[in-house]
Write a structure and sequence with these properties.
Elements (H helix, E strand, L loop, with lengths): L12 E5 L5 E5 H35 L8 H25 L5 H6 L7 H33 L4 H35 L5 H37 L7 H25 L7 H38 L6 H7 L6 H4 L4 H15 L5 H6 L1
Helix pairs in contact: 1-2, 1-8, 2-4, 2-8, 4-5, 4-6, 4-8, 5-6, 6-7, 7-8
């Protein structure tokens, strides 16, 4: 080194000795880049893992027993479980033999066991199973809000929806298979890059398509209810808000995939939808129970208060408790309540039988 050139410790090079006697030179910037990448991606996966674990605990504790057998709850819970397993196994890649400094720079994975390979192959198919659960959940919600459409429009909508879902599923399956081949062969095929980009785009388009259908139909129903006097914030508004969230967040993460260098940012697309779907059901169910209890309390309080009005009123009600129908004229708000419960029942959030019994 030239004596006039100051020594820069951040640019120095060190040598790794391989098993066959050859040497591998590694610079400090390369090592820093390796460490930073592992830290960033582990933070990303760890954040998603923590959010899903908390959500799973909330689902187990707050979901009523009679709601746990509904298809929408089963699918959403499976999606959370697959996401938890996928994030755990993804973290194991960077904390296990694959993530060791010598193995990475010397490209020597001789100490990686077969179980480590199997774990990483399983990770790719965990994401695929998660995608199947998300598509199933979105299909169930879309079907619930489109049952009132006329036959022709419903058939066209279903045909387009099935086509988009199949294209996205086939591409994601191809990506899972290619990923598994890459892990086993320790190679990085060029074809995997364009498949990954295509999957990111098609995934966002398919989720956005489902959410646009769901939120537009639900938004139109809310507009019609507002005209009828059903403007109070309730379960339908909650589902609409969460539907918009499920639409916007994947689009944002997809844009970030192509505009930033954050490792594995595309994995947040599925996680955001996985979290939003069961949260909407929990929030709407809680609001539904609150409104039901409020209505029941008002009914009981009216029945417990006798009338002390005029003689004619007293003669009619002195020996009989007042009922809501005898004191209040029918209003659009009360006439529309059963329909709200029917809409929620179609999504597995409520049962109209429970409301009618009370």
């Amino acid at each position: 080194m030239n004596a006039s050139t100051p020594f820069d410790p951040y640019q120095q090079t060190f040598t790794l000795q391989t098993v066959d006697g050859s040497q591998v030179n590694v610079t400090m910037p390369e090592l820093d880049s390796f460490v930073q990448y592992n830290n960033q991606i582990l933070i990303n996966y760890g954040t998603q893992l923590g959010a899903c674990i908390v959500l799973f605990i909330v689902l187990v504790l707050l979901t009523k027993e009679n709601k746990r057998t509904t298809p929408i709850f089963i699918v959403n819970t499976l999606a959370v479980i697959f996401n938890i397993i996928g994030n755990i196994t993804a973290c194991l890649y960077f904390t296990g033999p694959f993530g060791e400094v010598y193995a990475y720079f010397a490209y020597d994975y001789s100490r990686v066991r077969g179980t480590d390979y199997a774990t990483q192959v399983a990770t790719t198919f965990m994401w695929f199973l998660l995608w199947i659960c998300i598509m199933t959940s979105l299909c169930l919600q879309t079907r619930a809000v489109c049952v009132t459409l006329r036959g022709f429009y419903r058939q066209v909508l279903v045909a387009i929806t099935i086509f988009i879902a199949l294209v996205a599923t086939v591409l994601r399956l191809a990506l899972s298979i290619e990923n598994a081949k890459e892990i086993v062969s320790l190679s990085s095929p060029v074809a995997l890059d364009w498949i990954a980009e295509a999957v990111a785009i098609v995934t966002t388009i398919s989720i956005a398509w489902f959410c646009v259908i769901f939120t537009s139909k639900l938004g139109y129903s809310l507009h019609q209810r507002r005209k009828m006097g059903l403007g109070k914030f309730g379960p339908m508004q909650i589902i609409f808000i969460m539907g918009c969230q499920s639409l916007l967040l994947p689009v944002i993460f997809c844009i970030l995939t192509f505009t930033t260098n954050v490792p594995a940012i595309q994995s947040n697309v599925l996680t955001s939808v996985t979290i939003s779907l069961p949260l909407s059901s929990l929030w709407a169910s809680a609001s539904l129970d609150s409104r039901f209890e409020e209505t029941r309390d008002k009914t009981y309080s009216k029945q417990a208060i006798p009338s002390y009005g005029t003689a004619s009123t007293t003669s009619k009600t002195a020996n009989n408790p007042l009922s809501p129908s005898s004191t209040n004229p029918a209003s659009p708000r009360h006439d529309g309540e059963p329909q709200v419960f029917k809409d929620l029942e179609a999504q597995g959030l409520a049962g109209t039988g429970e409301f009618s019994k009370e």
